[in-house]
Specification:
heterodimer; A: alpha/beta; six-stranded parallel β-sheet; 26 helices; 13% strand; globular; B: 638 residues; six-stranded antiparallel β-sheet; six-stranded mixed β-sheet; 25 helices; 42% helix; 16% strand
């Protein structure tokens, strides 16, 4: 299978040893170049080494794996995954020196972590007082959220509690960690932090990975944060330089999360990396490129696709109107096609991008009304179940996987109104037999769906080594068939989602023992996300990263929405970069839409202005 | 036609073809007895094997070296051990059935939750076979096992593979499951604490294949192998690797030879002519019928392939007409060829030849046994030999020996106790045991009981006294009488006996410095000192053996023996007798001792025959009897 590469792309692919920085603009063939490099490096089977390819999202990892599945034994010869899943393996198998025994249980949900923090605060009088001072419960929740974000910031800067100067902040951080440990759990940021600590304290373990992997490739390097960069540096040690980083500072949209494109420069300096720029854009039509250039005047493209394309503005009266316009446009493209687009234009080749998930309300209703198939990826969080019974079932899964998970034990106990299993009830004997713990809880339940959930758990036939997940889902679906229609729909939506997770998990863990811990871990890390789905895509800019569509709609382009009204200074620059990313998702056609009025949550109708980008784009 | 071919063959032989050179080179390597053993260049060694619940091996832990020698009585579990290893990582499929699961005495059949497990520990080595810390970068093993490679507490690399056979109710059989383990427990009793490595699939057949164990069992026979499709022989020869041009050319030659033979034989020509009449009845061409004395196609040649061997001066005979010794040896050399061939074929490093051989001594003369063992030592890769031969044993190093014994229904494995800390055996200590014990008295390891003593006189006399006592030669009873060579030399022998749990006794001289020396040795193996040690019989009154047996009571018999020995004729005899009779008692005793001193060996062999069993020896023999009291009826195996 020969893939055509431009001379410059070939330079990147054929680069041998030594550090390399590749600055790759949108549509420059970044994924292709990465994939082909891995393929070339693995071509000679007499060279005994493996490759570590780190991507930003699981979607990107799965895509890369798919493209490489013609390489014999690709899964054995390369680790393709996110840095978080890499850390998961390191900690699960070699984490004993820093206290991690086996596959860690991850609390990935923001709500769960906030509850953990709340528990920590409750046991500290000063912090409790500070929280009460915040005001009403809603305000207190907000305060907890901001404290939680602060802790995440610290972890992402590799700051340990002992290094924090402010006494209150340190106790907050320590308390939070202690509560996590009490539930034998870690959070996402811990994966990086602990792996960094492990490599720093046990350099021989880092050395093991250096012996394993002769080459390391990192994608989306503009989105690395401090923790990730330093982790990579500690993995490489002082001698290892076969690192290739691929990124585009123009597309850095995670600075709000602690990332910084400066690490690209740091990498170039620290590793004495050669730099290659990929400045061609094989994806976007002339019109789209021109639009991108109006947003960022320094963006240049060598070698422009000779396709005109088009960028249009659609001004609408209100959000329902906006939604209708979009759907109409898609329908008309479906029927008439477009000279610049080959073949039939289906909704699957189109995407609607919004700055945040709130601009999609009317559109979803309109799509449902018109019966157009769509899928959405509007938040970074993994799917949240919406039906009670499945939510409760998830809690029991967590407890089976991690009997010491006090947090979710409490939540379940409260949900079921089960008495006497308060936080301080000792459960050491139950820790070995989570089934009997669950039975005890269920028997004391006064509300919730305890009997059904217990039946589902029993249907799992869990042996510690294996579990029949689909049996459990079937039990839940049978229960749902007796529910009123709307409730039933919710349950089935949730079980459908879980079935997808399970399907993906089973296919990606070949011949292994299936443990609930590893299944939930995969779900937490988002590994079970599929690369592509059917129908029209509804995406935020961040979830659209790395994707491309023939037709892209930017919805809700009002000043205050995009750019976000809160953005100032560097954040405002990041808004511009987000717009740049959004625009460059389109291959051919780009439609910018905005409503002139919006209905506020409290009912009032408010006039809206078009975004400043609109005037820049359309003169 | 044939003539021209012969010319070609001769000229080929004359020009030393690369192939001929190569053959000579290999032959040279094999015959160079002074060559250092080929480097163990595989880069790994299987360091330890733990077997749980397989046949009589309830829980057995065996450390392996590059060459390990298993000894022990029949049915002690040696073959079961080799079979367990084979079940875990052997070449070819092994199925476990209910019969293979360990059974307690009281059980009629094995409980279904009893799991058969075989854990193996692999360590990286350098190209001399010495264990190193880590797999080097670019190691083929690192690539093969990837994240299955883990680190121990000292951060050294290791690979631990657990093969389990668990009862699967749905399938109704024992199912194999093979995983990488996250660690290797130092304490074998905690083996179940080791968990599988996460996020890594089960160990695949491909990941085991390079260290597959090949079992050369006791029934091996190269003549049989030539005819068996699945043998090493066939594995190698079925792919002859000749190019298409070579095949065409050679088959053409064969065709010519066939024609030549028929044309040169009147009767064959005659038959062939008549057979051509086929074409009248069947639809075939007149020229399409021919007699082929030789195989026409190269692929058929291997069917008739044979090896022809001639011993010095004798005509060559094919293998199936050779004796069993040659035939069982043949498998060994073929296997050697097979492993070195594999190494050449495979990419450098990812092959670990592993041979398990039962009783290499089968059908072989003792000299041949020794010689074969030397060759086994030179083979590359890892070898496990089980043997009953003292010749083979005597050539091994004590550190490599593992002793299997049965304790009721389960097997126990012992090795030389290396001691710990200050008392740890040094390299010199081991060499001493090898030189002083193994090379001379390797048969010790097979004894039921051992008696140690210092001197040459005892060496000769004791077996005779023993025969007097039991009515049978001690060899028949499985007792070994071992002269250690001097009062300071008991230690290596004691270590051996203690490590391998062979009952031992010491007959010690009564002299003070002897007792001190013996006590030192006893202390070094943690034994009680004289006189509190029931295993040590000390000659009374500070005497040594000679002074003990030469007494007023025995002098006459001894004088008679001496004079008979020395006399050249009847007259001389009378004169000698007279001479001796005239000496005083004291002089007599002194002179007897002097005589014995001068020719210990001579008189040693006489003493046991002419004297009654002395008291101290009676004591010793009683002790041996009680130690080896026959097993109570309840413990006897049918």
């Amino acid at each position: 299978m020969s893939v055509r590469l431009t001379p410059i792309q070939r330079q990147v692919v054929a680069h041998g040893t030594g550090a390399l920085l590749v600055v790759a603009g949108p549509g420059s063939g970044k994924t292709r170049v990465l994939t082909e490099r891995v393929r070339l490096l693995l071509e000679d089977p007499s060279q005994h080494f493996r490759i570590l390819a780190l991507t930003f999202t699981n979607k990107a990892a799965n895509e890369m794996k798919e493209r490489l599945n013609d390489v014999p034994d690709i899964l054995k010869r390369a680790f393709v995954g996110t840095l978080h899943s890499f850390c998961m393996e390191v900690l699960a198998n070699r984490g004993k020196p820093i206290g991690v025994e086996g596959l860690p249980n991850i609390f990935e949900s923001f709500d769960d972590r906030r509850q953990v923090l709340a528990n920590a605060v409750r046991s500290d009088p000063q912090l409790s007082a500070a929280l009460r001072d915040a005001g009403e419960p809603k305000e207190q929740q907000r305060k907890l959220s901001s404290w939680l974000e602060r802790i995440s910031e610290l972890k992402n800067s590799l700051v340990l509690p002992s290094m924090v100067e402010d006494g209150d902040e340190r106790r907050l951080y320590e308390g939070y960690d202690a509560q996590l440990r009490a539930s034998a759990a870690l959070d996402y940021d811990d994966l990086l932090l602990l792996t960094y600590r492990l490599f720093a304290e046990r350099p021989k373990i880092a050395d093991f990975y250096r012996r394993q992997y002769k080459y390391i490739c990192i994608d989306e390097a503009q989105d690395l944060n401090e923790a990730q960069y330093r982790l990579l540096v500690s993995l490489c040690g002082s001698e290892f330089t076969n690192v290739m980083m691929v990124g585009d500072p123009r597309q850095a949209i995670y600075v709000w999360n602690g990332a910084d494109p400066k690490y690209l420069d740091l990498f170039q300096r620290d590793f004495k990396a050669k730099k290659i720029e990929l400045t061609e854009n094989f994806r976007c039509s002339k019109a789209v490129v021109a639009a991108a250039q109006r947003l960022d005047s320094s963006y240049t493209v060598e070698g422009q696709l000779p396709i005109e394309g088009a960028v249009e503005l659609i001004e609408c009266e209100d959000e329902p109107g906006e939604a209708q316009s979009i759907v109409e446009k898609i329908r008309s493209l479906e029927s008439t096609g477009h000279p610049d687009i080959e073949g039939n234009i289906t909704p699957g080749r189109c995407a609607v991008l919004g700055r945040n998930r709130f601009v999609f309300g009317s559109l979803q209703e309109e799509l449902k009304k018109q019966g157009m198939l769509f899928y959405k990826k509007l938040s970074a969080a993994t799917y949240q179940s919406e039906s009670d019974v499945v939510e409760q079932f998830e809690l029991t899964l967590r407890l089976l996987a991690n009997p010491r998970d006090k947090l979710h034990l409490d939540i379940l106990a409260k949900t079921w109104g089960a008495p006497a299993l308060a936080e301080d009830a000792p459960t050491p004997q139950n820790a070995d037999d989570p089934m009997s713990l669950l039975k005890a809880l269920a028997s004391g339940a006064r509300k919730g769906c305890a009997p059904t959930v217990l039946n589902a758990v029993t249907a799992l036939k869990w042996t510690g080594d294996d579990f029949k997940f689909l049996n459990a889902l079937k039990t839940i679906e049978e229960y749902a068939s007796a529910l009123p229609e709307q409730d039933r729909a919710l349950v089935l939506q949730d079980t459908a989602e879980w079935k997808k997770h399970w399907d993906y998990y089973v296919r990606s863990e070949p011949g292994g023992a299936h443990s609930i811990t590893s299944f939930l871990g995969q779900v937490a890390l988002g590994t079970t996300q599929q690369p592509t789905e059917d129908g029209l895509a509804l995406l935020t800019v961040h979830s659209a990263k790395g994707m491309e569509f023939d037709v892209v709609f930017l919805i809700g382009m009002n000043e205050g929405t995009f750019p976000d009204y809160r953005a100032r200074g560097p954040a405002l620059e990041e808004e511009r970069r987000s717009a740049f990313v959004a625009v460059t998702r389109s291959r051919r056609l780009l439609y910018i839409t905005y409503p002139n009025t919006k209905v506020m949550p409290w009912g009032a109708v408010k006039a809206q202005q078009p975004s400043q980008y609109v005037s820049e784009l359309f003169g | 036609m044939l003539a021209s071919m012969r010319t070609r063959n001769n000229s080929e032989a004359a020009a030393a073809t690369p192939r001929a050179k190569k053959a000579n080179q290999i032959a040279g390597q094999l015959s160079d007895r002074n060559a250092a053993p080929p480097a163990a260049f595989s880069g790994i060694v299987i360091k330890e094997v733990r077997v749980k619940n397989y046949r009589c091996l309830r829980s057995v832990d065996v450390e392996l070296d590059l060459l390990t020698v298993l000894i022990g009585q029949n049915n002690a579990g040696k073959t079961s051990f080799l079979n367990a290893l084979f079940a875990a990582i052997g070449a070819g499929q092994r199925i476990i059935s209910g019969d293979d699961v360990f059974l307690q005495k009281t059980e009629a059949s094995a409980p279904k939750d009893r799991v058969v497990a075989i854990d193996i520990l692999i360590r990286p080595t350098d190209d001399q076979g010495k264990i190193v810390d880590v797999f080097p970068q670019g190691s083929a093993w690192l690539e093969l096992w990837g994240l299955g490679v883990v680190q121990d507490e000292e951060e050294s690399d290791l690979v631990a593979i657990r093969t389990q056979f668990k009862w699967n109710t749905i399938k109704g059989e024992y199912v194999l499951d093979r995983r990488f383990l996250k660690d290797w427990q130092k304490d074998s009793a905690k083996w179940e604490d080791s968990k599988p490595v996460e996020k890594v699939p089960a160990v695949s057949a491909q990941q085991i294949e390079p260290l597959a164990v090949y079992l050369l069992d006791a029934k091996r026979d190269i003549a049989e192998d030539l005819r068996t499709r699945s043998s090493f022989w066939n594995k190698m020869v079925e792919e002859h690797g000749l190019s298409a041009e070579d095949v065409a050319r050679i088959e053409e030659d064969l065709s010519e030879i066939n024609k030549d033979i028929v044309e040169s034989s009147d009767v064959l020509t005659h038959i062939q002519a008549h057979l051509k009449s086929f074409h009248e009845t069947l639809s075939c061409d007149e020229d399409s019928v021919s007699i082929t004395p030789l195989a026409r196609h190269l692929r058929d040649l291997s069917r008739g392939m044979d090896v022809v061997l001639s011993t010095r001066g004798a005509p060559p005979f094919p293998l199936h007409q050779q004796g069993m010794g040659t035939r069982s040896l043949g498998t060994f050399f073929t296997f050697w060829a097979f492993t070195t061939w594999r190494q050449k074929q495979g990419s450098a490093g990812a092959v670990h030849p592993m041979m398990a051989m039962e009783e290499p001594e089968t059908h072989l003369h003792p000299q041949a046994q020794r010689s074969l063992f030397r060759q086994i030592k030179r083979m590359p890769g890892q070898r496990i030999i089980s043997t009953h031969s003292p010749y083979v044993c005597g050539q091994s190093e004590i550190a490599h020996i593992r002793h299997f014994s049965k304790n009721a229904e389960e097997t126990l494995v012992c090795r030389i106790d290396m001691g710990a800390g200050e008392k740890k055996l040094t390299y010199e200590d081991l060499r001493k045991i090898d030189r002083q014990v193994m090379n001379t008295r390797g048969d010790m390891l097979f004894a039921r009981a051992l008696v140690f003593f210092e001197g040459e006189t005892e060496e000769q006399a004791l077996p005779d006294f023993a025969e007097k006592r039991w009515g049978k030669h001690p060899n028949d009873l499985g007792f070994s009488f071992v002269g250690v060579g001097g009062k300071g030399s008991y230690l290596p022998f004691l270590r051996m006996a203690e490590s391998f749990k062979i009952p031992w006794f010491i007959l010690s001289d009564g002299e003070a410095d002897t007792i001190t020396a013996v006590n030192a040795a006893l202390a070094a193996v943690g034994q009680a000192a004289i006189p509190n040690n029931p295993r040590v019989i000390v000659l009374p009154d500070g005497k040594k053996f000679e002074t003990y047996i030469v007494t007023e009571a025995s002098k006459d018999a001894l004088i008679a023996a001496i004079t008979e020995r020395k006399a050249v004729n009847a007259q001389h005899l009378t004169a000698l007798r007279k001479e001796w009779a005239e000496k005083s008692t004291a002089d007599q005793l002194e002179d007897i001792l002097a005589e014995m001193e001068a020719s210990k060996t001579q008189y040693g062999s006489v003493v046991g025959k002419v004297l009654p069993v002395p008291a101290a020896l009676e004591d010793l023999f009683k002790k041996i009897d009680s130690e080896l009291a026959p097993p109570k009826p309840a413990e006897k195996k049918a």
